[in-house]
Amino acid sequence: MVMEQLCDRLASDLDSAFDDLVGALGDDVYSGLKRMHGDDAADLTQETFIRAYRALGGYEPQRIKDLRLRGWIWTIALNLGRNHVRDRSRRPQPVELHDVHSIADPEPMDEALWQARLDALPAAQRRAVVLRHVVGLSYAEMSAALGRPEGTVKTDVSRGLTRLKKLIEEEA
User: Fold this and answer.
1) Cβ-count burial 112-123 (b if 16+ within 10 Å, e if not)
2) Among 32, 43, 59, 78, which is disulfide-ready with 135 (CB 3.0 to 4.6 Å)?
């Protein structure tokens, strides 16, 4: 569904069109947040859409029609992610315990390897690479979601990709 049509539907009947919004953007938001925040992605995705629903309920119909949905939703998701990281850093970190006497199935190697590579990037570059190449946002949408100039976002993507390439070459 085209985002402009979805905005029109949300403006006229929020309750019936909101499922379509979640269907159109939910998987992208989850995938991007998964790359940035790991196992907390499902909760962050759910909270993103709860906040979006509450916000849309208070907007005038014309304001909803004028929204750039993907960028707006990602602004909410990224803010929640930043708050989550900040809040988590203020709490004591649990110690991870391992049962050394049982054999557990490891995560697929490629997934873990890619996550480690992404984790090696600085936060700004990781967010930019994930939003561009995992989620598929345009640079304009990324600029709006991150609150950074489009040129800066392009630089973050380029530097992130260069760093990933270097990491891959060092592994070989």
Assistant:
1) eeeeebbeebee
2) 32
Q: What CA–CA distances, in Å, run from 36 to 60, 72, 122, 148? A: 33, 18, 11, 18
* pLDDT single digits (tens) 16-71: 999 999 999 999 999 999 999 988 999 999 999 999 999 999 999 999 999 999 99
> Strand locations in the chain, DSSP E?
none
Q: 66 vs 1, 105, 170, CA distance in Å?
A: 16, 48, 47
Which 3-state string (H, E, C) describes 127-162? HHHHHHHHHCCCHHHHHHHHCCCHHHHHHHHHHHHH
Q: What is the pTM of this model?
A: 0.70
What does the radius of gyration of the chain's CA atoms come to, in whole angstroms?
Answer: 18
Structure confidence by residue, pLDDT tens digits, 101-160: 444 544 445 778 888 899 999 999 999 999 998 888 999 999 999 999 999 999 999 999
Report the phi/psi class of residue 130: left, alpha or beta, with left for phi > 0 and alpha for psi in -120 to 50. Answer: alpha
Question: How many residues are there in the chain?
Answer: 172
Half-sphere exposure for 94 (CA within 13 Å, toward CB)? 3
Q: Which amino acid is at 167?
A: L
